[in-house]
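Thanks for the sequence, V.! I ran SUN domain-containing protein right away. Repeating your input here for the record:
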Amino acid sequence: MPEHQQKNLAVYMLCVLLAALTVFQIYVSENSTTQQIQDRNFVEENSEQIKDVGQYKVTGGPTDSKVQCFEEMEILNDRLSLLEQLNFDKLGPTDYAARIFGGEVVSVVPTSRHRGSLLSRVRTAFSSMYDNYYQMQCIIQDCGTCFALEGSSGSIVIKLVKSVVLNAITIEHIPKSALPVKTDVYSALKEFSVWVRTLPFPSATNPLNDH
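Predicted structure:
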């Protein structure tokens, strides 16, 4: 091979190597840039996730849910306690004198200072009429539906739906703090006694106890 052809071949090979090296550098540079972009995006995504987690912990994380649930449980317990105070018989032992269990107020006889007056006699004459009968039934309904007795004492006859064995007697009365602000008249039961009449022997009336 002539000497000038050998020189041309060497120059040609050198150009091919330079071109290959340039292409390789471009390929490496592009891959490096792509990897850097991917790494940068990954870091940014992780940063956003960390920020979201931080905001979730501050504003609405599991801890806040537990606190809210605990507060709701406290409110529920307070409501149950209030129900137990006002209407214990609905959550406790059966109240056989209650209206919903068949109890019935037969009569209410007040002892009034005006017992001998004409007005008192008229009231007594109409005491067993329809309207007054249903007004009396509030005595054995929910606490707060009161029936006012005229005078300082009186007697109430309650009929049970069936014969029962008594093991407890409760008297409910609405607290004064629960009354409307403008209510001026307020009185609570101080002393009471319970008498029992067993059917079919109406003449056998026995005292249980005085309180």
